Amino acid sequence: MRTCRICDSALTEIMSFGDMPIANGFLTSLEEKEFLFPMTLHFCSQCYMVQLGETVPPEAMFNGNYQFVSSTSKAMADHFQGNAEEIQTRLKNVSDPFVVELGCNDGIMLKHIAQAGIRHLGIEPSANVAEMAKANGVNVSVQFFNKATAEKIKAEHGQADVICGSNVFCHIEDLNSVFEGIQVLLKDGGVLFFEDPYIYDIVKKSSFDQIYDEHVYYFSGLSVAELAKRHQLQLVDMAHQDVHGGSMRYYIQPGSQNTVTERVVEWIQKEEDIQLNDTRGYEKFKDSVNAICRDLKTMLEDIKQRGDKVVGYGATSKSTTLLNYAGIGHDLIDYISDNTPNKINKYTPGTHIPIKAYEEFQQDNARHVLLLAWNHKKEIFAKEKDFRASGGRFITFFPEVVIE
After folding, report:
1. Burial class of residue 170 in the structure, from the number of CB atoms within 10 Å of its CB (0-12 exposed, 13-18 middle, 19+ buried)
2. Do 322 and 227 have their domain in common?
3. Mean pLDDT (the chain, rounded)
4. pLDDT greater than 50 at residue 63
């Protein structure tokens, strides 16, 4: 029986997705051998943490060939600029503040902190995107974060007023070691905040494509409060974010006597209302996921049988789960359009659908487009208003399969 990575209690399986490839494992050749792992989702009834059963070694995911670059989306650029502005406001009256970001990617957020002249350090294990951050004027250390790392940073720079991370904490299997490091590095009175996909949104929308190898954990206020408590920290605030199809930002401070906002109480009540503190809260999730996959594949088969072309929009990490679990391959999707340079002319993991430059989509006459980057729907619909006005249609699939 598998045990919880946070509290060592027995886990209950929510569902199995079968053998999955690495979500960002885009292929340069169809002859490449792919790494597969059995992907199952589990729930801990003691600390309420939702987590993967099997995991992939971090070095297989976050390395010199890591594919995800934050700055390719204007919406994300705006979001992270807002994060930086919040940090600057928080530090307005602090003398010589120090900010640490875990998983700084290409410096999309920290570059604003650097430009403001604030002492900072980005921790980024993927060397290729760390170089992009350095080019953006960010101080970066290429390594994983843990207690030993925290001790070295503290000795060299002192303790941090702010430690933050966006879409990174859910990636770290040994999360207790990270929180041990935070205990060392975070000042009394300082704040840790991190944001990740929110299990409440995933369950409500059935957006199961958020589940893939990089995301070991799927947080709720319930589970984050328990995790913080284990490390003499306290969840003090929660702020919902629209990015990535629904994320939550958690604010945590040292000690146990801090002021806790009403937002924490309200969100945890919402979580309990849909039973995210009980296995019963996840029973309908599996049925809904399977219904979406069935309906989507049927729709695509019907379109292809009529002789029409279907293309994908956005070669996202999360689409790996959707395409593989639903059994949607090159027979149903002609190609996927993307504007990330290091994905173009590659193939999707497992399903081997060609990835082509956005310019090819612009010149194409495809009328049906599967919106794999659905979490950027508002931005994409604005960008493609002429395509839609001319009769082009997007297929979306959460919380149900529709043509828009």
Report:
1. buried
2. no
3. 94
4. no
Contacts of 307 (CB under 8 A, 6+ apart): none
Q: Where are the beta strands (DSSP E) in 155-301?
A: 160-166, 186-197, 217-218, 233-241, 247-254
17 Cβ contact partners less than 8 Å away, ≥ 6 residues apart: 39, 40, 41, 211, 321, 324, 325
pLDDT at 68 (0 to 100): 53
Q: How many CB atoms lie within 10 A of CB 393?
A: 15
Name the domain count of the chain. Answer: 2
- Domain final residue pick, 260, 282, 304: 282
Q: Give the end of a domain, one of 282, 316, 334.
A: 282
Q: Are residues 296 and 384 in the same domain?
A: yes
pTM of the full predicted structure? 0.92
- Backbone CA torsion sign across 369, 372, 377, 382: negative
The two structure tokens encoding residue 16: 């199995």
Q: What is the CATH classification number for the domain harbouring 386?
A: 3.40.50.720
Asked whether residue 256 falls in the same domain as residue 348, the answer is no
Residue 353 is part of which domain span?
A: 292-403
Identify whether residues 189 and 228 lie together within a single domain.
yes
Contact 66, 22 (CB under 8 A): no
| CA–CA dist 40, 359 (Å, integer) | 37
Q: Are residues 137 and 247 in the same domain?
A: yes
Provide the pLDDT confidence category of residue 62 given band limits of 50, 70 and 90: low
Q: Domain holding 202: CATH number?
A: 3.40.50.150
Kindly state the average pLDDT of the residues 358-378.
Answer: 95
* Amino acid making up residue 340: T
Residue 212 CA to residue 4 CA, distance in Å, equals 18
How many alpha carbons lie under 13 Å from residue 142 in its C-beta half-sphere? 14
- For 245: left if phi > 0, alpha if psi spans -120 to 50, otherwise beta; the answer is left
- List, for residues 71-107, the tens digit of each pLDDT value: 556 778 899 999 999 999 999 999 999 999 999 999 9
Which residue, 55, 351, 14, is CA-closest to 199? Answer: 14
Contact (CB, 8 A) for 284 and 276? no
